[in-house]
Amino acid sequence: MGRNSAIKHYDSTPQGQPMDLFQSKGGRLPIVVELLRSPWIFRASDLVREEDAGLGKRKTETVAVAWDERRRCPAAFEWHSRTYRIDAIVQVWAIEKHWWDASARVSRRVWRVLARGGTYDLAYDRLTYAWQLIGFVD
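RESULT FIELD:
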């Protein structure tokens, strides 16, 4: 017996009986389908409200951004005549939509940043070369 003997040896007849997770006529459906029917699991898209997306305040306002060339990220932004120094970058992602249609194309790089105790989403539009504030939670 080695040091992992407790892991290797276990009772082959444990107490209790196995239970079916989903007892229904459609028991052969994939588990995901059954889970989505349950009352305690929901999709985030079901929570989205058009006015605020359910996640803080959603706005699309043009802002001025000071770019840190050395770190290759925004250093500060000006919104409503106030300068917000960026304390930390939380997340960075890209949004690419309708790349095949020049009239409806969207190409943005988004930075979620912390500034003055709030979380702000700054987007750089690669087509118009403009910065926008697209959301915030304060």
